[in-house]
Specification:
4-hydroxy-tetrahydrodipicolinate synthase activity (chains A, B); TIM Barrel; alpha/beta; eight-stranded parallel β-barrel; 13 helices; globular; 294 residues; 49% helix; DapA-like (chains A, B); homodimer
């Protein structure tokens, strides 16, 4: 399942809980568009904010709405015992894989992070993807640690942060040299995805793919066909959106964009997160309208 | 209650849950030593790792064991609705104050952090202390934001990170200039505490105070008596411990030290956190034995 485009939808959530119908519609839309897999309860899916019960419920909704497209479910939490509970719930919900980030409060050392993956991976009956996202976890993996973890049973993929296009090929090759051959390497950081795919990544774990799957599939397919120029050009057409992602945070931008497209209503981010203010929403709407008109 | 020494004990926690007897003993020991207040479920108290039920139970144990010494309880969480629930539980347990850090997964902006404190503070019937700890929350307060939040109802104190001694007086005076006059300023970062107290802070929120209350009270009382030289000298005697705090993280050092003193047994940190390895434990034991022999 670790190939092509893995699309990460928002889990629309307000003080009243998850908008279950809205979430199911977001997932079904990705399945209809033909994404290769769906990443439920990723960072954009708000995994860190939801209760165990909400997460178990969201995992079931995602699998049901995905219409056979494999669903990977985020199981991260600050405490290992909670991660193990989330893994159990995700598997019971029918997840085809799980995604685990070493979320931290007290800064973690390498042995603690290795221990987390060791404790969790051995209990799994589905593959695990290591989620390397220092911007939210505040943990930085060494390649040596990636290698140790990737050798654990059931570890099947690594999701790495964005890399500038001119460094992507070398970075991915270096990392692959530390990993077992059957472990996939996927890129994230949407603005860098075309460069990562052109540079040899197996797949793209995509925030925007959870909202505009056709646009992201076109980039992914162009790179897979070896047309790196086309992949880059298609990504460059989205650059006003990448600018907004950097400025406001991608979760707030896709929240406002999904509202603008009429897919969900607001508020849809778990407090203390807030939706964008009216001026920023206008920016998002203008950029989105321009992209959809092209 | 925001004066003198506020001592923050560990909440000894293993995969089996909280060691309730061990925790009660740690708290009772602080009360017997005469600390001015006790901070239960601070960062060292593992608030971020515990379930709602564990936190409610720990709050009750702390209040019961404190023998009338006021107890402040940490209520932070990634989601506002969880913070509100923790605030309710802490107050029901008899907390004299609550402590709130803007813990983050998605990076928070100023309006979101202000909104968090606004949503929570208005429902309180006890004072709130703002917990500014960028090392764990990854949020950096501006003084302007501190001023906005400190003007909210029930906000009574600010816990700020450590400041080098030569900058403490100016830093504290600058911050006070932004706050209502009745809002207390307390320092943390134990190695910097003497400088902060000498520089005019109202109190010290102390990790080591949760383990060696007499030593920390001696520093606090010297500063309160205007004997800044004595406060500094007493703190300097503990400098091998401050070095270990920086090297291994204070939570791991106080965990090993409490075991060495026979106060609790291991493991006592919630996984993925791990206790120190044998070599580091020997360092902790040697430093502690030296300090206690003086």
């Amino acid at each position: 399942m670790f190939t092509g485009l893995s699309a990460f939808p928002l889990t629309p959530t307000s003080e009243d809980g998850i908008d279950e119908r809205g979430f199911a519609n977001l997932v079904a839309r990705l399945s209809a568009a033909g994404v290769d897999s769906i990443g439920a309860l990723g960072s954009t899916g708000g995994y860190a904010y939801l209760t165990r019960e909400e997460r178990a419920r969201a995992a079931r909704i995602a699998v049901d709405a995905a219409g056979g497209v494999p669903v990977m479910v985020g199981i991260g939490a600050l405490r290992t015992s909670q991660v193990r509970a989330h893994a159990e719930d995700a598997q019971n919900a029918g997840a085809s894989a799980v995604l685990l980030a070493p979320a931290s409060y007290q800064p973690l050392n390498d042995d603690e992070v290795f221990g987390l993956f060791e404790d969790v991976s051995r209990e799994l009956s589905v593959p695990l993807c290591v989620y390397d996202n220092p911007g939210t976890t505040h943990f930085t993996f060494s390649d040596e640690l990636h290698g140790r973890i990737a050798a654990l049973p059931n570890v099947a993929a690594v999701k790495i942060p964005g890399i500038p296009a001119d460094q992507a090929r070398e970075r991915i090759a270096t990392l692959r040299g530390k990993l077992p051959r059957d472990v996939a390497v996927g890129v994230s950081g949407d603005q860098f995805a075309a460069g990562g795919l052109n540079g040899g990544a197996d797949l793209w774990f995509s925030v925007l793919g959870g909202l505009l799957p056709e646009h992201c599939l076109a980039i992914t397919r162009a790179a897979a066909d070896g047309d790196s120029g086309k992949a880059t050009a298609l990504s460059d057409q989205l650059s006003p959106l990448w600018t907004l992602f950097r400025q406001y945070g991608s979760i707030r931008v896709v929240s406002a964009a999904a509202e603008h497209l009429g897919l969900i209503t607001g508020p849809n981010l778990p407090r203390p997160l807030r939706g964008l203010d009216p001026a920023a929403r206008k920016e998002v709407a203008a950029v989105l309208d321009q992209i959809l008109a092209e």
